[in-house]
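Morning run. Coffee first, then this:
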Amino acid sequence: MILEPKIKIDSSRGFTLIEILIAMVIVGVGLLGNVGIILTIINSNKTASDFTVATVLAEDKMEEVRNTAYGSISTGTVTESNLKSDEGSGGTYQRVLNVVEDTATFTQANLKKITVTVSWLNSNGVSKSVTLRNIVSQ
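And here it is:
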């Protein structure tokens, strides 16, 4: 008597449709979580870029005033609107230069208090600003 091996069909090879759908849902939920993180990172980069541009604009004006002869620095307020970064990217900035004689703070005469404020609206429409202060002597 010869025994013949029985051929058994194994249906457990591969994935069922339900398993594939569950895997797709798990991957989809993970990707949605990453999208939120990516959007937060993009917004943070934009905020940092805006602050950097505003700081550079304020420092440029402060350097300009410090490189001006003391007698040529006139007191008062000067406002410059619609400023952009050197690269031309980003929003619109407003720069305000305020120069006042400072006689009350120190006993030394011939001091001028310089304040440079750069302001802008962020992507949410909220006003932000950077302020630099300095005292210039004769």
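The longest strand covers residues 111-121. Good start to the day.
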